[in-house]
Amino acid sequence: MRVLVLEDDENMRLAVGGSLRGAGFAVDQVADLAAADEALWVNRYDCAVFDRKLPSGDSLRFVRAKRAAGLATPVLFLTALDSVDDRIAGLADGDDYLVKPFDMAELVARVRSLCRRSAIGRPPVLRCGDLELDPASRQVRRGGILLTLTPREFAVLELLMATPGTPVRRDALIAGAWDEMADPTSNILDVVIRQLRRKLHHPPMIHTVHRVGYRIDP
User: Fold this and answer.
1) Which of 53, 70, 111, 120 is the most exposed place for a label (fewest CB within 10 A)?
2) Contact call for residues 177 and 152 (beta carbons, < 8 A)
3) Coil, strand, or helix at residue 164?
4) Average of per-residue pLDDT across 134-139
5) Which of 73-77, 134-138, 149-153, 179-183 is the least confident region?
6) 149-197 pLDDT tens trace
7) What residue spans of the chain are helical by DSSP H?
8) What's the CA gap between 38 and 28, in Å, rounded?
């Protein structure tokens, strides 16, 4: 699952991003509203974590405007503002509200809950031959047998199964399954593909498309 973190304080931004990555999330980090706007335009996020008061403006007003334009991504606000009115405003335009200082374990739990809520609107099941992937329950079965996948393996497989029979570029798979910390020239994707092929057993379903990427076929 992919999370956008907007926080102008570098130490807090790194701490939040590190905790979420440690819990298995892909995390993109930005420091101002302009960068957040661009990230939301380019990527689909399961959740966003926004600091409330920023040098570039109030993220609550930013989210309110994005909601009016159709933004459906769940948003959790981080803030030092703890009055009842501030909490009400945060919950009116956002989906959750966490007052600083907070415990990182609680933040991770709340983000995970919002990501599950985001998954409700996804296709109930993706199918390719005898392979089934359920985005909501995070379960994969082949021939009715439940498979155990890592979060990265699940993310790559979900991207491939979204367009069965159609090649998916390497850079698209890396961008969708990792975050901005991933090196597109590394072999991280090849390692995950190799693991997926082993776990999916025979006959093989994931095929290499030379100089492009990979595709999945029944």
Assistant:
1) 70
2) yes
3) coil
4) 77
5) 179-183
6) 888 888 889 889 888 888 888 888 887 777 656 565 678 888 999 999 9
7) 10-22, 33-42, 59-68, 84-93, 104-119, 151-161, 170-177, 188-200
8) 12
Q: How many CB atoms lie within 10 A of CB 158?
A: 19
Rounded Cα–Cα distance for residues 121 and 135 (Å): 10
Residue 159 identity (one-letter amino acid): L
CA 165, CA 200: separation in Å to the nearest integer?
Answer: 17
3-class DSSP assignment, residue 74: coil
Which among 54, 114, 46 is positioned nearest to 81, based on CA atoms? 54
For residue 132, what are the β-bridge partners? 127, 141
Residue with tokens 């990427």: 213
Phi, psi of 78 (to 5 degrees): -105, 130
Q: How many CB atoms lie within 10 A of CB 187?
A: 10
Whether 95 has a pLDDT exceeding 80, the answer reads yes
Residue listed under structure tokens 């155990």: 148
